[in-house]
What we know:
alpha+beta, 25 helices, 604 residues, 17% strand
Amino acid sequence: IRANHGIDIDIETIPMDDKATFDLLQRADTDGVFQVESPGMKRVLKELKPTVFADLVAVVALYRPGPMDSIPDFIARKHGRVEVAYELPQLEPILGETYGVMAYQEQVMRVASTLAGFTLGEADTLRKAMGKKSQKLMEAQREKFMKGATARGIPAKQASRVFDLMEQFAGYGFNKSHSTTYAYLAYQTAYLKANYPWHFMAALLTIESQNTAKLAMYLNECRDMSVPILPPDVNASQLAFTVTPEGVRFGLGAVKNVGESAIASILQVRAEQRKIASIYRLCEDVDLRLVNKRVLESLIKGGAFDSLVAGQDADAAQAARCRARLAAALDGAVDHGSRHQRDRDKGQVQLFGDLPEAEGGSDDPPLPGATPWSEAQQLAFEKEALGLYLSGHPLDRFKQDLQAFGASALGDLLSLGGPSGDAEENGEGVATARVSEEVVVGGIITGLRPLRTKKGDRMCAFVLDDPDGTIEVVVYPTVFAKAAPLVQDDAAVVVKGRFERDEDNTRIVASELMPIEAVRAKVTREVGIRLSVPPHTRRTFEQLADLFARHRGDSRISFDVAVHDGAAGWRIRVDVSGQYRVRPSDRLVAEIEELCGPGSVTLG
């Protein structure tokens, strides 16, 4: 923040009534905010809508086993839906800040001191006895409390009820000093996120750069917050994620197989050259013991060299071409750099080596030609290098298919908290919000965990990843027996199952899995093919007929043919569904486009 805006923030003196911060807490936009980013805590914040710091302190204390049962009452009292009442008038000064709900151990101690005359040392002994849950100790403490309270004119029945309330709470309670420090750090991080979101997210992404799951989650959060994420770039990135006027620049430290020493060597060369002009120039000056072929390969796959070939505004197609050419040039570039460094060490230099190159010219060998990577290859390599999909998502091309099939996006499913359901009791008899509804979602399998039941039956759990989020999927033995061949890391699947959410977990219990291309086949009614005659001839149509025979299915086929005859030209639409029908798939599209050209196929 200081570097970008010239503002010095003293985090210990930020305003404690900042509207933007409380707005963020009330919306529960708290991913990355200390102590309050769990799903359960987010639900509490949305319902409570904290307006003062004391609310946050209380929430941190109450969101624990035992006191958690008091949260609905605490929220209802804050918003006036339930009258704030006290067993005795003497309790109001002690419990007033928490709307009559006992939230802190210090409150227990003050109640004992005020009502029964306990010294603070005796009150602390009571607190410890309650925590140990010793029946013998508690009987002695109850007797002492009742004696002191009745001596001060408090009716025995009311004194007993107050002691019961204290006993119920204190075994699980938080001390206020501890809760306040937790809440203060939560407020500070919320303040930074609310007022400096780009900088906060850059710091958060840097901290979690080696944790792929959290990195992906926080990058999704950036998209939700409209924080632009710029790809890694050897001429623009630093070790950490950094803020630029255009957005948050991906840090080189988050690229896999690229250590800090290698990055330091690259940054040093960049500083000396002012700008890295090519992969060949980089290899001439970088420490190739640190920046070896594996490091360069990861940087290529992650897109860090795109701007050297395709320019800053490269589109996906340009990136696919340039990354393929850079990968093909890699061995030659490393050899070129090694030779250059050996010659330099021996004192052998080019006669004109120190002269500036001519404008627009270069002494670098040209990059070799190479077949552009397919979209699937490019995204797979990106995930290999970065741990996530940055320039797109494998599911993007199936978006319309999934919508037509009635599939939900994970972002919609998770952000709405899931469908409504009934409260259930957990194993401790505590009512928890639990939702359950049948859903259909598509995604990529990651984090696959093969499991076995106690009987030895095979099952599994995995994380399903779509462009908007992730969710755990559990596949029990009966379903796994049918779906086992589909359950592989990086496989694209559609999951039908039961969406479940409670205080602790969000997951889908699968009832059926199918390959995502099966969905495309179900929803695609027509495969459209565009081509021109010439250059295509009868031979192209014969090859297409053979191809259709290998991909038999139920979808119609139509041609949009541009016919050229000298200066004249016209278009013909031909439906061949009476003779041929196909099963749509990526392979079918690829084979047709190999014959008819890129972009010649449309699925309707």
